[in-house]
Amino acid sequence: MRKTFLSQNPSVMWFIAFLGLFTLAVAIGSEATGTGLISTSMVKTLGKTLCLCLIAIAMDVVWGYCGILSLGHFAFFGIGGYAIGMWLMYARTEGIVMTSLEGHVIPPTPQEVQDAIGNQIFGVVGSSDFPWLWAFSDSLFLQLLMVVIVPGLLALVFGWLAFRSRVTGVYLSILTQAMTLALSLWLFQNDSGLRGNNGLSGLQNIPGYEDTSQATTSLVFFMGSALALALGYILFAWVVSGKMGSVVQGIRDNEARVRFLGYRVERYKLFIFTLTAVIAGIAGALYYPQAGIINPAEIAPIASIYLAVWVAIGGRGRLYGAVIGAAFVSLLSSWFTGGGAPAINLGFYTILWTDWWLVLLGVSFVCVTLFFPKGIGGLFDYLVRKPS
Amino acid sequence: MNDTLLEVSGVSKSFDGFKAINNLSIQIAEPELRAVIGPNGAGKTTFMDIITGKTRPDSGHVVWGERNISLLGMSEADIANEGVGRKFQKPTVFEAQTVRQNLAMALKNPRGPLAVLLHRKTPSNAARIEGIAAEIGLTESLTRIAGELSHGQKQWLEIGMLLAQEPRLLLVDEPAAGMTVEEREKTTDILKRAAKTRAVVVVEHDMEFVRRLDCKVTVLHEGSVLAEGSLDHVTSNPKVIEVYLGRGHA
């Protein structure tokens, strides 16, 4: 069975090998192991990029393979980030509060401790009460469960309503945009219970590992992200190969035909939509501790649109294409917007890439769609000739 | 004697005031080969849409099988799993996938997502696929991408997919459209063989093709049955000549 799976999916082995070598190279070059060739902030950037690659392959499965152009998957990514962020913030604040109360003659009551933590976390939005959302925030295990359950449940309910009513195509895309916009607007409110536009911060400090340097923490998260990407890649490669892959791609190419073959198309769409949402949540939970901060702007509609652009540029319908697209475009994006690209002086006008990067990205997207529908990943077709 | 498999009675359906199907009643036995003919707009495709659950009629009954269950209100997938297979007018196969994958997807097996996800290839399934491929003459092409097939081969593949579903009733919409003479003969043979063990309803424009099928013919006109019987019988019917043949030959 494993033999046939790998022989049918040669890209899995190549990908795992490449990812393994890449991880090893970064580990050797990182400051944590002493060579210091790669700065800690670079390790974080690379780790975050791996998380973006993970959500990109999820997007590729739901869009490239199943034909559902979801423009809301970043909402699930953000929810995963918030879920883990709540524990990170609670546990760290608890540690700070306990330290500050240590010297007191009379030991503080649990209520006093709670109030102090609440004050620390929610003072910024003028409150000190714990909202119901934070009921499990003291438990890492339960919040990790939330990383999976909340995106999964949201996708399940949303998908069930949408697919059952046979909402397809651009209408579904608009609905998913509305979903992520609504979520982000709700989070922006101060009384949402998640600190409004301040979001959750200080997530790079891992409670219990205060003495561990950021160099080490970032390397651990980088490796964790690499592992998650590898496992996600294998999982999705398995899902989109074999008979499941046939049905899912059949739904993309001719939904009605699949239905007349006796498959309940809605259930398949729901399965794919929910599974990819869960993986997106996991990717987000790994991303935000490396980013250090999450706020509602992260799940603005544009983020999910970028995700679709990455996958389109990388090449739809091939998992490694999504990885290439996400890594290439997001790294390029931080290079251009971070001032890495030199400004071009035309004499009468100076092109500043911080302003013009979006235009360049937009033009590339249009060109890829028009002239290279297979994306960057399509180049591999020229390298690898399938034996006929 | 043959048992009635499908009974359509008093079915009507109008779209924006246009009566596509008007008090239509048809019975199909098992096994049986039946040709449904009629001019454009006679309601042939709507008739198939109603049976397969794509369209809900305004009134009437569609009753299926020994247990006399109503197909109205069932989803397309449920109706397909009851044993109704449908071939579309245009060949609709999954062009990005191989012939074998197309047939494997259609093969009668559990249809739930979990069963499909955990599905493994078995020798018996492989043998069934080989058998169907032989039946439709695509044994050599099993590993080819369906999009590369010729028009006729795609039509056969779709018929093969229907056979793989092991339906009790096969609805075939204009199978001979765009086929060469040899391809037509082969298609006729496949359908005739299929009709030995199940009900096959062929909707067709082409009189020559219907003649070759050599079966009972139902003539539809303006959404209801105009005549029924052997081809010679219906073609000698003055009403049929007027509405169907009359236009071209008058």
From TrEMBL, chain A:
Pfam families: BPD_transp_2 (PF02653). Its main location: membrane. It is found in: Cell membrane. Keywords: Cell membrane, Membrane, Transmembrane, Transmembrane helix. GO terms for molecular function: branched-chain amino acid transmembrane transporter activity. InterPro entries: ABC_transp_permease, ABC_transptr_urea_perm_UrtC, LivM-like. This is Urea ABC transporter permease subunit UrtC. The keyword Cell division does not apply.
UniProtKB/TrEMBL annotation, chain B:
The keyword Nucleotide-binding applies. This is ABC transporter domain-containing protein. GO terms for cellular component: plasma membrane. Keywords: ATP-binding, Nucleotide-binding, Transport. InterPro entries: AAA+_ATPase, ABC_AA/LPS_Transport, ABC_transporter-like_ATP-bd, ABC_transptr_urea_ATP-bd_UrtD, BCA_ABC_TP_C, P-loop_NTPase. The keyword Nucleotide-binding applies. One of its GO terms (molecular function) is ATP binding. PROSITE patterns: ABC_TRANSPORTER_2. It comes from marine sediment metagenome. Pfam families: ABC_tran, BCA_ABC_TP_C. Transmembrane segments: none annotated. PANTHER family: CONSERVED COMPONENT OF ABC TRANSPORTER FOR NATURAL AMINO ACIDS-RELATED (PTHR45772), HIGH-AFFINITY BRANCHED-CHAIN AMINO ACID TRANSPORT ATP-BINDING PROTEIN (PTHR45772:SF8). The lineage of its organism: unclassified sequences, metagenomes, ecological metagenomes. Residues 6-247 form the ABC transporter domain.
